[in-house]
Structures are given as structure tokens and as C-alpha cells.
Amino acid sequence: MECCFPASRLLACPLSCLSVSHRLTDLSHKFFFQTAIMSSTIVLPSDFGYVAAGLVSTAWLLGWQALVVGSYRKKSGVKYPQLYAEKAEADASKEALLFNCAQRAHQNTIEHMPLIIVTTLVTAMKHPVFAGYACGLWALSRVLYTLGYTTGDPVKRNTRGGILGELPLFGLLLGSTYTAFDLLRSSA
Q: Which helix (H) or strand (E) holds 34?
């Protein structure tokens, strides 16, 4: 079956117009695929590009942080698969301490990622521009957080602008909560 929408409108294309390239011999699988894709439509808000840009900025952030961690790992001599320098190593070597700080900044960012992704996507259902800007601002704040942390003084992770990331995070939490309640209310 040919797709009923031009490629430029594929984001709003009903999934039923997408063809399966091979035959399924098991009828239960065939029934599942037919029923699962016949009535679904993916519709993105017109300003979803802001959301995409915000989310992609987090990928660039994580890549940059990985390079920072790798650089400090090399300087400190901490070998894989050791996650952190031991306390004695960090006390004896400034490079080992800086490696631990860089590693912790990266790890903390990874710990926040599920929260950022979920709240950004849920908020984006009703407020895509706000969600995109908040996600991008959070990513920028994590650069400041990492630069402050890698001074070797962990307190500076928040005193150099890293704390600013709490504002967009809180905004995304409120925005996603409001969006979820609004969707529940409108479906009732």
C-alpha cells in the first residue's frame, strides 16, 4: 500500500499507510501488527523543532562531558574500568581529584537525563516552545556546572552558574504536571 501522505507530511502520517516489507506467517503476529498500526497517528505540535533542538543540546552536552572526563582520566592515569580514583589517589594527586570531579559532574548529568527527557516531552505536548527553551537552558547550565566542578572545588559546581539549571528543571516539572492534568481533564 502506498503512503497516503507526501514525505513532507510524514510526521502526521497514519501508521496504517506504512507497509510491512515481509509477510508474517504467524497469524497472531499479523493480527497484532494490523491492529496496532491501523488507527495510530503521530501528530507533533508545529513548534516541535524547539523541543528537538533542546533535546539534541543534551546529546551534545553529554558528548562534551565524556570528552572532558576522558581528558582528565588520561592526565590522572586512572585506568579503565575503574570508575573513580581512590580517595588516597585523589588526596595525593590534583589530576586524580579533577578526574573524580569531572566524572561526578558527568554522572550527575546522566542521573538527571530521564527526568529531563520525560518532562520535556510531556510539557512539549501543550507548550513546545517553553519545553524546548527550558531543556536547552538546562543543558547550558550543565556546562557551567561541569566547568565549576572541574576547578577541583566541588562547591563551585553551583556557585559558577550551575545552580541556574534548577529553574528550568522546576519549570519542566511544573509544565509536565500541568500538561498531564490538562490531558486527563480533557479526556474525561
A: helix 27-38
Helices (H) and strands (E) in the chain, counts: 7, 0
Cα distances from 168 to residues 86, 133, 171, in angstroms, run 34, 8, 5
Q: What is the pLDDT of residues 90-122, one digit of tens each?
A: 999 999 999 999 999 999 999 999 999 999 999
Global confidence as pTM: 0.77
Q: Residue written as cell 515481509?
A: 22
Q: Are 165 and 141 in contact (CB under 8 A)?
A: yes
Residues 90 and 78: beta-carbon distance below 8 Å = no
- pLDDT the model gives residue 26: 47
CB neighbour class for 29 (10 Å; exposed up to 12, middle 13-18, buried from 19): exposed
Which triple of cell numbers denotes residue 97?
581529584
Of all residues in the chain, what percent carry a pLDDT higher than 70?
79
Cell 504536571 belongs to 177
Query: What is the distance of C-alpha 32 from the center of its chain?
Result: 31
Closest to 90 in 3D by CA, of 108, 76, 107: 76
3-state DSSP helix/strand/coil % of the chain, to nearest 5:
75, 0, 25
Q: Please tell me whether residue 14 adopts helix, strand or coil conformation.
A: strand
